[in-house]
Amino acid sequence: MAEVEYGVGLPPSAPVADLVALAEEVERLGYRYLWVNDERLERDPFTVLAAMAQRTDRVRLGPGVTNPYSRHPALIATATATLDELSGGRAVLGLGAGGTNHRALGIERKAPVTALRDAIELVRDLWAGSTTTVEGDVVRAREAKLDFAAQRPQIPIYIGGRGPRVLELSGEVADGVIVGNVATREGWAYALDRIAAGAARAGRDVGEIRLTAWLYACVADDEDEALDAIRPMAATSVVTSRPVLGELGIEMPDDFRARMEARGWSLDREVVAEAGAKLPPEVVHRFGIAGTPDSCRGRLARLLEAFPQISQVAIVPFAPRGGAVVSTLRRFIDEVALEPVAWS
Asked: pTM above the 0.85 mark?
């Protein structure tokens, strides 16, 4: 099995001081990547990442993921280049087509593949110091040029997604892919097939594309408590993955479907959590790594043995009832991770 790096994805839902303290612990524990989600109208991820950059030295930092609808790609380029300068060359950029704030901002998510392709082209041109114009349906820029020199003109760009066309685009143009919340053999076989198809179309070696498994995680002594911790997010993933559930090897439970249809498939947290309260363990397991240390380690080992192409496992840590997120961070590294993680 190839060496795997570990990363952490954090929603910016806690106070900034707490998030920065978590970042320090993430680095101390040996995680190599720290992604901050761009969600809803939470704390601004780039501001949080900047604060984290000043309190860390080695961990790579980036939004996981932002999108070209709620943030103009030119401003994503400037923010990422600024973060790279502040962190001493540790920035990475996660881009996707989704966005939980689109409704609040009155944004229509259209032509996602084209939007991402145009966004990446614009961002890379700006980092390279070029003056560029883009006249797309979503992304538009006229003679745009950074007013400062990017410290690195080739900051790694990861595309996050589960849809077939976005995965294919990742194979065509991205440095890496974040396959979101897929913990099944069927799901990874499907994702790799689509990534490889995109790489072949672009004449690329798929082995050069870094693959990240993004997984909800909770490690606890009680299996049910761990599953309960990630169940609301697993339920959200069931809803947002409806077009590809078959490819992921998942069948939506009838009672869950009925509850969500009755609420118009709303993604409001309370609605999804209520509908997903009885989501069976076998469904929850398909979106993350949750359970006792032995159970989590076994599931992770089986996934990485089946797909040695995975180069990073990024966990979104959740706390068991009465516990703390930092407990999952520590227990995952100490009791679940399959590779040495100490900084050399």
From this structure: yes
